[in-house]
Write a structure and sequence with these properties.
single chain, alpha+beta, 6-stranded antiparallel beta sheet, 18 helices, 22% strand
């Protein structure tokens, strides 16, 4: 009996060894696969939450830029009902900015000026109590649905009043405590202070003294956030926003109301919004972790245990034949080695995933840095080289170019490029680019059947990608990338770069358009008085630093009142336009002709002496006589009276220079008009 038992144990020993080894291998693979799956899930969760936060921040920055652009208009020019209506309707703000409930201008009205304000505007101020100063809504867009807003004293509500005071004293936008809206939605208001033109208050007391009013945005949060981030990134994630702290009462937004999270996969990202802190809270739903990667460990465990039992049973059955058992054990060893090899492949896949996530984080960081720099640009010409410098950082193995649509000429023009010279045209028509015609990216693969764009002169063997640049539904241009060393540009990143650039350039174009409106005279097309004063200060400082001279002409249209009275204001405007066109074409590029007011014009002549300025004025007086204006009944000629002054010969300050030229002009008119007289010295 003992001998049989001993023989059985010897036969069972290989089976026991196989069972132990295979169970150990199954447990090892299960543990490794579970750790791998957990890491993948965490990396994916972190990447998707950062992506959502990034695009939410960009959406908020876009709305802030709109507020700054309109603020610039108030800063440099007077805005009345017609200017307000023209700007808001032309820009189609409600269509471009989802969630915009109202855009308002709120005027500061001291109590002593209340009656005058109500009489001048026809708007009665509605306030909860008498105060030292009121902040009634003067303009509102859109008018439909906001009929009761004009006259409402915004400061009569405590949360709004606190935000008004913060914006006024800091000089920066300030958001009020979010307000409850219909059907559980939340609304929040951002105020931007507007100070009187020509002031630059540097401290609290100066800001309070110079305050003219506020611009504000009233935004519905649910609509604002709709489509602001990639839906696929938030498919299995609950995304909530809280104001200041995480509680039911402070929740502003919930992408999945009532959804249950999957446990520890949560993340909170703080975000500063106009002086308030929003908490972006993310929690994974159960479906987020239910992926093939997370199911794989269980497959390894149960499959490994079943295989272990099967193998040990087979080995036990075969143990009577030593050679067969050994052969089978060797085969099992090979199988285990293969499984371990597969595990190494899984580790390599994880490593590639980690590298991909690190790359994405780096790209998101670069995109944020580029966006911040583009927002700081004051002109489009500053933005173009920035995009050209950042593009190679996103696509180190490519060369490319940025093309913008010139609306006036219906052409697409290159404004920036990078890498070796491109095989393509610098200027082409829109129909030459398939991406612009189709409104979506156009990727031409090497040897593919895709039609090539006509602006690509010679076909690059490695292929190329054109991405249309769209902002608020309008095409701005195209981002063109050509691969290098056989590496095709990554379309997803190219689309993101094109979108970020397009939004920034669209805002800059809007700002430049507003600035141009604020410094140009509508009738003559020349610079206005406000721009003249700024330019004269700047040019005098530059002239003094270079120890040069500067001439100034003050020009008046003779008998202009007669033209207006006899033929009407339309003829008067035609005369002003004709003189403006003549002055714009007559002077050098450095000279600065401006409309000073009424029928008066001023021309700044950098580098001109008193003598050369007087000689030039005489030429202008003679040349203007060749211009005839159709009054409806006959062609009338134009004559000019001109006063001449110069720095430093007659004056050393802007005020004195203008006064010297003005005195000379009035002497010219008193002596019979149609003449040029030189001013006399005027002390500064």
């Amino acid at each position: 009996m003992t001998r049989k038992k001993s023989h059985f144990l010897r036969q069972a020993l290989p089976a026991a060894a196989v069972l132990l080894l295979s169970v150990s291998a199954a447990l090892y693979l299960w543990k490794a696969a579970r750790e791998n799956a957990d890491r993948q899930v965490h990396f994916r969760f972190e990447a998707q939450t950062k992506e959502i936060a990034f695009f939410v921040q960009k959406r908020l920055e876009l709305y802030g830029n709109a507020l700054y652009s309109l603020k610039a208009l108030f800063t440099v020019s007077d805005v009345g009902p017609s200017e307000w209506s023209t700007f808001t309707e032309t820009e189609s703000l409600r269509e471009r900015y989802p969630g915009l409930t109202a855009l308002r201008f709120i005027q500061r009205v001291p109590a002593s000026e209340r009656d005058a304000f109500e009489k001048a505007t026809g708007i009665g101020i509605r306030s909860s109590r008498d105060r030292d100063e009121y902040f009634p809504v003067l303009f509102v867009y859109p008018a439909a649905g906001n009929e009761l807003m004009p006259g409402f004293d915004v400061a009569s509500e405590r949360p709004l009043s606190e935000a008004l005071q913060l914006a006024r004293d800091t000089g920066r936008p300030a958001a009020a405590e979010p307000l409850p809206g219909p059907a559980g939605s939340r609304t929040f208001v951002i105020f931007a202070p507007v100070y009187r033109r020509g002031t630059a208050p540097a401290d609290v007391s100066a800001r309070r003294e110079s305050l003219a009013g506020f611009l504000d945005l009233v935004l519905k949060i649910d609509d604002l956030l709709a489509n602001s981030y990639n839906p696929s990134a938030a498919r299995d994630i609950r995304f909530e926003i809280f104001d200041g702290e995480e509680s039911e009462s402070t929740r502003l937004y919930d992408s999945r109301p009532g959804a249950v999270s999957a446990g520890p996969l949560t993340q909170t990202i703080p975000m500063e919004v106009a002086g308030r802190v929003w908490l972006l809270h993310f929690s994974a739903l159960p479906e987020f972790s239910d992926t093939p990667e997370t199911r794989l460990p269980r497959v390894y465990l149960f499959g490994g245990l079943a295989l272990s039992l099967l193998l040990s049973g087979i080995v036990l059955a075969l143990s009577t034949s030593r050679s067969r058992a050994v052969s089978f054990a060797e085969k099992m060893t090979v199988d285990l080695s293969r499984e371990i090899g597969e595990r190494k492949l899984a580790d390599e896949k994880l490593q590639r995933l980690v590298q991909d996530l690190e790359r994405r984080n780096h790209e998101a960081s670069l995109m944020g840095e580029l966006g911040e720099l583009l927002q700081s640009c004051s002109r489009l010409e500053e933005a173009y080289p920035l995009i050209g410098r950042f593009a190679p950082l996103f696509f180190p193995d490519t060369r490319g170019a940025l093309y913008l649509i010139n609306g006036a000429r219906n052409l697409v023009e290159g404004v920036a490029d990078w890498g070796i010279p491109l095989a393509g045209e610098r200027i082409f028509v829109q129909d030459d680019c398939w991406a612009l015609k189709r409104g979506k990216p156009h990727f031409v693969h090497a040897g593919g059947a895709e039609p090539a764009c006509k602006h690509v002169v010679s076909y690059p063997p490695e292929g190329y990608l054109c991405v249309p640049m769209m902002a608020q539904g309008q095409g701005l241009g195209v981002l063109h990338l050509q691969g290098a060393s056989g590496t095709a540009p990554r379309e997803e990143l190219a689309v993101a770069l094109a979108g970020e650039s397009a939004l920034a350039l669209a805002n800059l174009k809007l700002r430049e358009a507003l600035h141009a409106q604020s410094i140009r005279d509508r009738v003559t097309g020349l610079y206005n008085r406000h721009y003249l004063q700024e330019s004269l200060d700047r040019e005098l400082l530059r002239t003094a630093r270079r120890k040069e001279s500067l001439g100034l002409l003050m020009i008046d249209i003779d008998h202009f009142k007669h033209f207006n009275d006899a033929y009407g204001h339309e003829v008067g405007d035609a005369i002003l336009a004709a003189v403006g066109k003549f002055l714009a074409s007559r002077f050098r590029g450095d000279d600065l002709p401006c409309r000073y007011g009424g029928e008066e014009f001023v021309v700044i002549l950098p580098g001109a002496s008193l003598e050369s300025s007087a000689e030039l004025a005489g030429q202008v007086r003679e040349e203007i006589k060749t211009i005839k204006v159709n009054t409806g009944s006959k062609m009338e000629g134009i004559t000019l009276s001109i006063g001449v002054a110069a720095y430093p010969a007659l004056a050393t300050t802007p005020e004195a220079l203008l006064r010297s030229a003005d005195q000379a002009l009035y002497r010219a008119k008193d002596e019979g008009r149609d003449r040029v007289l030189v001013g006399v010295p005027v002390p500064g």
